[in-house]
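Deliverable D2.4 — example input (structure tokens):
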């Protein structure tokens, strides 16, 4: 059914927007050095982040419903690639990105208002967050390529 395909795409777009949009904004806010703004933005992002797994899970369910109603092979190579990318993105988000955002939020809550504490400054300057963001973008591009080209099929 095309409605399932539409809902799959819509929820995945929403999930990516909620996951990557605020993260990109947080990187700029963090580099501003304005502790009050960092505190507010990271606290809000930490709460907003709770919607990310829900949106991705709903998107996943509609994707599986699409495959089932269209009679697709659940073990087609392009779908196996999609499953692997989904698992990789989920692990990175849950084990690295979300804890980093929560950590910065906690440090900002403890930091003086006039300037970032050394711990907060170090967490914001941590280049691993930049590398992870780039990896997230690469994973999204790989997803789009996989869904459009359907390699090895």
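Example output (designed residues):
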């Amino acid at each position: 059914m095309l409605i399932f395909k539409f809902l799959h795409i819509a929820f995945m777009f929403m999930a990516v927007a909620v996951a990557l949009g605020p993260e990109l904004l947080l990187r700029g806010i963090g580099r501003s050095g304005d502790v009050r703004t960092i505190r507010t933005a990271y606290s809000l992002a930490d709460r907003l982040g709770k919607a990310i797994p829900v949106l991705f899970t709903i998107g996943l369910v509609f994707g599986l419903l699409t495959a089932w109603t269209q009679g697709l092979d659940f073990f087609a190579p392009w779908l196996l690639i999609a499953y692997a990318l989904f698992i990789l993105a989920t692990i990175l988000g849950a084990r690295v990105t979300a804890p980093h955002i929560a950590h910065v939020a906690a440090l900002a809550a403890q930091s003086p208002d006039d300037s970032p504490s050394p711990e907060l400054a170090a967490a914001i300057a941590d280049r691993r967050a930049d590398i992870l963001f780039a990896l997230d973008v690469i994973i999204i591009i790989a997803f789009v390529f996989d869904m459009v080209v359907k390699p090895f099929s």
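Residues 80 and 108 are 41 Å apart (CA to CA).
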